[in-house]
Amino acid sequence: MMQSKKLDENVVLVKVNGKDMYFNPGAAFTPIGLLTWSETGVSGLRMDKDGGTWIKTTLPASSESQIQREAKLKLSDTGDLEGTLKVTYTGLEAMYRRLEQRNTDDVARKKFLEDQLKEQVPGAAELELTNKPDWSSAETPLIAELNLKISGWASSAGKRVMLPVGFFSAGERRVFEHANRVHPIYFEYPYQKVDDVTVELPQGWQVSSTPPAQTQDAKIIVYNLKVENSNGTVHVVRKLNFDILLLESKYYSALRNFFQVVRTGDEEQMLLQPASASASN
Amino acid sequence: MVAGILTLAPHIALAGDAPQWMHALVSAPLPTYDEKTDAVLLYSETNVTVVSADKIKTQVREAYKILRPAGREHGTVFVPFQIPAQKVTSLHGWCIPAQGKDYEVKDKDSMEISPPMIQGIELVDDLKAKVLRIPAPDPGSIVGWEYEIEERPLVLQDSWEFQGLDPVRESHYSLQLPSGWEYRAAWLNYPESKPTETGNRQQWTVTDVKGIRKEPEMPPFHGVAGQMIVSFFPSGGLSVRNGFSNWREMGSWYANLAQGRTEASPQIKQQVAALTAGKSTTLQKMQALAEFVQHDIRYVAIELGIGGWQPHPAPDIFSHRYGDCKDKSTLFRSMLHEIGVDSYPVAINTKRGSITMETPAHRGFNHQIAAIKLPDGLSDPSLVAILQHPKLGRILFFDPTDELTPFGQVSGDLQANYSLVVTPEGGELVPLPQQPSAMNSIQRTAKLTLDPTGRLKGDVKEVRLGDRAWAERWQQRTVTKDSDRIKPIETLLAGSLSNFQVTKATVSNLQHADQPFGFEYSFESANYAKNAGNLLLVRPRVLGNKAMSILETKEPRKFPIEFDGPARDTDTFEITIPAGYVVDDLPPAVDSDYSFASYHSKTEVKGSVIRYTRTFEVKELSVPVGRAEDLKKFYRIIAGDERNTVVLKSGN
Known about the structure:
CATH architecture of the largest domain in chain A: Sandwich
Radius of gyration of chain B: 30 Å
Structural class of chain B: alpha+beta
Strand order of the largest sheet of chain A: 7-8-6-5-12-16-15-14
CATH class of the largest domain in chain A: Mainly Beta
CATH class of the largest domain in chain B: Mainly Beta
Strand content of chain A: 35-45%
Number of domains of chain B: 3
Shape of chain A: elongated
Number of strands of chain B: 38
CATH topology of the largest domain in chain B: Immunoglobulin-like
Number of helices of chain B: 10
Number of domains of chain A: 2
Order of helices and strands of chain A: EEEEEEHHEEEEEEEEEEEHEH
Helix content of chain A: 10-25%
Helix content of chain B: 10-25%
Largest sheet of chain A: 8 strands, mixed
Oligomer: heterodimer
């Protein structure tokens, strides 16, 4: 039965060069071409003199809402990582953060960013924001630059050292942990996570092995992990694309399996030989 | 010392303008604060006038300067009161914005609400609140208010809680007593300040009081915040009816309230006879009564007026089959009396540290349990929560409200926690015993097999005792579907394994709190061990996380770190490695021993089996702030051990 109260938002349809574009003038910080998450990819009634027709609002591609994390780190011979981190939020990732923090101040926003990123590191991380992100724009990415230290990131196994490669993987650690699901799974909007991390090893350390490249392509969700080693520097690139909005519960098992693969990839470790061990071997 | 700006004279500002006492604050210097401070309390004044033992008037003035957006919450004034004993007779609020004209709101602009459950447990109470919203509470604004409350006091005592989350520039408290009355003031968590005397009014002042910034696992707020407890007495001495100034007197006050409430009705006597029929020992009889009160008397809190402290008569509790903690304690004590066992009511605060030996006598308790005077010769290994009291002899503490902790023990939050034991001679503050750490434990053993692809599978058995068992039973108490009973196991596995399938799981002793709680389950995890050329990398610590990151912060720790209770957990994981592989590298053993906690782990190889064992023990329940760095180091050592790897090498 038609229930008008279920149409609880108004957006504007504009023909731009013959193309339908949706706008919500009331949604602050929303980039042109995007709508806030609750209005994204949903049905609506286009009002016209004939009464109206049903339309579906734009579902943007995951590439339009990204979290890019670029870290340049050094590994100490005690296993600590230290360096810089640049995080770029685009599209709806930037929008929701700006919206959430619109009534706070710089001190609260700094803590907000630092705490959010700390939660993404599966270890004892210290973060310090060093730049002044642009919180007022709708069109430019929200960029945070930070100093990062992760204590005890590398672990030992006798004469070897293990370096985990899932630097920002905590967000995927505890999702879909139960085997059974009753309700459909709703993602707020399509998005991507792109991590690009370089780690400079201590002088004289050698890489014994790197994990194999991982690719898990479920079409609507894609995971890639690639680890390279070059002249004492390790380069890790991790990508996670979510081109999905709503998934029926009958596909839950496949979704859970996908995330298990992601976590397994994130748990991969590089095998390192410290300088003294390298010399003696 | 900063003098009070104005006394509570009628404000003479123009209608709509903030009063002069607030305008005087506009140019006042601010107290010390940092960039994270949301607001500062510029001025606070509480004037208490005791008219008689039945009437007290309290006038309050407060003004905050808002510094940050989060300080806007001070624009909402919340004045709690209890009907019919208290009445808010006036309420005004003002805002002096950084720019523009003042705002004023009055009593008629407020609304009266019944606050949602204060402790989350009351079914019915008589607490109300007046809520007044002050316009424009923005950074740079000064918001202030005045209100007056008249009350018929339940107790002749007041507390001045002058230290809160925000820094305080100056705070004043005054007390005016009828002629001939006396008072006693006691300070807590703050250096004592002597009062100045004007006529028969005493006034205390504190200035530049630091705000308390909350930290995880810190002691309860009232255990660290500065406050003054003031008790007052009519001429001629203490009124037993509603006054006390020490724990002994408070015990007498409570005993007076509870007098006669444990007297058993014929129905109670009949029930006791039925429950104890066939029980040959006093212990068996006590256990039967304890189980009845724990399980057959439903927890329902109806707290009206003095009913927040006074229990209902035992016959009413019994006939209704419901009551709150003090009701359950009262009925239990009534039933004990019928089998010839003496007992005492015990008031306690479930947040250890709220009450300490230094705390002045006041109503800082939120729970009631019972202390049982154990008959001579009664001894049993199940009776652990025993205190040897110099006058009362052996007393056993028991919480009739806690239906998941077996008779003979108390939960971790009550252990080593100060309580008020009420005897016919009055009250005495005594600590509950701290139980052995092994009585609160998870003993986890696993026999697992690894294949060359890295798949790990096998069986796990867990035995949980004490609060560790309590938590599982509490979580499962509303679960009705068997398929949901394994969710805690899935959650546990998800904390340690990137992927897993539970292939079998059972729960044991779910309903039998006097028995250890058990989990037995089987699982498999693909790619648990990682291949690296001809190597296989295996983490021997398969399950469970003991490391914590609460101290991984930039700010130095300011308060002690509190543990929930003593604990001792053990893990033993045996992993059979694939044929053709040998152990090439083992992580080192870890031995970290502090007075507050210890952690020992070891990885050994016996034939084709890797055997990982570890023990984690909490020995002291509070780590002083001076040892926070030790605790941080302790947790980092554990985190390192939990990530360590065994390297297997293929002989092929």
